[in-house]
Amino acid sequence: MQKIELDAIDFHFEDEASQTGYHNGEKFTGIIFESRDGNYSEYTYKKGLPNGRSYVINESTNAIIEDGIFVNGRKEGKHDRFLSDKQITVEEYFQKNILQKQRVFDSQNTLLKYYSLKEHMDREFYPDGSLFFERIAPGEHHIEDGTISYILADQLLCNRFEYISKTNQYRFEFNDAVFLDHVKQLNAGYHWYPVKWFIDHLLKDNPSLAFEFLIKLLNQKDQYFIGEAAFYLGEIGKKDAIPYLKKIVSNTEVGAVQPRFPEVPYGALSITCKHMNTNGERAKDAISKIKKQHSFLRRLFNITE
Fold first, then answer.
1. Where are the domains of the chain?
2. Which residues pair with 66 in a beta bridge?
3. Per residue of the chain (305 residues), what is the pLDDT tens digit?
4. N or C, where is the chain less crowded by C-beta within 10 Å?
């Protein structure tokens, strides 16, 4: 079987599933190989499309990075992947390029994700193996239309139910106590969406509880949530938040990431500007501190001495 380097192949999009490979004007049949960045790859082709085994290995260790079978350009059967940057292993099963089942494991062989098209189920787990996300679709419904549940501290955090076409909205169910009692355990890597949904829900239905939750969120360790809390507090404009925001602005750990998360000083600046007339001295003091640390905000709001 002919074996040539990847650079010698011309690829054209003639199929929605994969590119067609040509060599010397003919659809290529044989093995395409490549050696790059410490990895060696081989792809088996027939009449221009992947047909047979394709794999990628580490040239130093011979460890498999990717391995799977293709039939007429489409993934078929078991495919394995190893993501070295995250130290996770991915097992996937395909039928005519459609993912049927997926399992993801960490370096300790702890299950992090389980997906099954047949079972209408999608689950994800914390590093300790406990469930944090579940999506289940009833009957013949597509899994993307299923109910989403988030779990924290072995308790239901929230549910997102089916999409309601009449209102163009989803229906939600929140466990307020879990959000408030376990706010320090909230992590943007796991809980970004439920926290956003919960804040929107509180701002609409319970503004006083929204303020309480945002202050708690502002004082936890996740930098992404600190930025979100500051932004929403700025939008609310309640001057009781000023001392909390000033404290966060002066925090050196938060300050180190503020160029990426300008919501923190923005929140303080937004609130103080809204209350300039009634609380001018406090506002002026807060703005002065923010200006010294964040010149880009001075330009943004056109503030001068």
1. 206-305
2. 56, 81
3. 899 999 999 998 876 667 899 999 999 999 999 999 999 999 999 999 999 999 999 999 999 999 999 999 999 999 999 988 778 999 999 999 999 999 999 999 999 999 999 988 999 999 999 999 999 876 666 667 789 999 999 999 999 998 888 888 899 999 999 999 999 999 999 999 999 999 999 999 999 999 999 999 988 888 788 878 887 887 787 778 877 776 766 554 444 444 444 555 556 556 655 654 444 455 556 556 555 555 544 444 444 44
4. C
